[in-house]
Structures are given as structure tokens and as C-alpha cells.
Amino acid sequence: MSLDVPTAVLDDARRGEMDDAAFVGVVRDSLPYAWQVVSAAAADGDARPDAPFGEHEVPPPSEAERGQLLRALASNAIRGALERHFGVVLAFQNCHRVAAFRPAAVDSEIYREFVSPRGQVLNQTPELRDC
User: Where is region (Disordered) located (predicted)?
Assistant: First the structure.
């Protein structure tokens, strides 16, 4: 299971109520490494206002942390909640390179290049083959 859902949040969900802030809290508490990575990428973008995106590209220290990051970015619900919370559009390469694009930059050449097959191929290294 990828999320530790408190009983109160689970009860709300069963009643058809799902508060986005409560869900974001569940993600933050359940996947702290993924939260840290996305937070760092968003902060990097904030620190460089002229850049179209911020990024984090340090490989995770263990497979447990890598698993958190993969679960967060592979889940539409989790990824969407993170994007809404941080006000960014996330892009992902090599099981650790996370970019947090400003929404206005999504229609840019740099975004299209980052998410393109060419961008993925150019960002490969032998040591990341089994990541």
C-alpha cells in the first residue's frame, strides 16, 4: 500500500467527501521522500523566476525512496494533487529527475523537449539502466 490513510480521511471518502487539502496531507505524510523531491523542484523554480522550471535530479538514496517517488508520480490522483498544491506541472525522467514547470511554460519548446522521446533518450546513462 502506498498511502497511510487516517481513519477520518477514509471515513470522509466513504461518504463521498474528499478534501484536496486532506489528501495532500496524506501524500505528504505517507510519501515524505517524494514530497521532499517535488517540494525541492518547486522551490528551485521559485528561486529562479526567469527559468521556466525548477528541478531535482539527485538519485534517491535507496530503493524505498525511489519507490515513493515512482508511486507519487505514477498515480494520476497523487501527481495531480501535488501539481495543484505546488502550482506546477510535473515532468519526470530517469526514475529520479523531476521538473516542476510553471503552468505557462507547458506550451513552450523547452517543456516539449523535456517530455519528448528525444529528451528521454538524451538523458540516459548506463548507471541508471536499472533504476
Answer: 45-64
65 within some domain: yes
- The 3-class secondary structure across 30-67, one letter per residue, is HCHHHHHHHHHHHHHHHHCCCCCEEEECCCCCCHHHHH
DSSP line for 95-128: TTEEEEE-GGGGGSHHHHHHTSHHHHHHT--GGG
pTM: 0.87
Q: 11 lies in a domain?
A: yes
pLDDT in tens, 15-70: 999 899 999 999 999 999 999 999 999 999 888 888 889 999 888 999 999 999 99
Range of the domain at 96: 7-126
Q: How many domains does the chain have?
A: 1
Q: Is residue 2 part of a domain?
A: no
Asked whether residue 131 is domain-assigned, the answer is: no
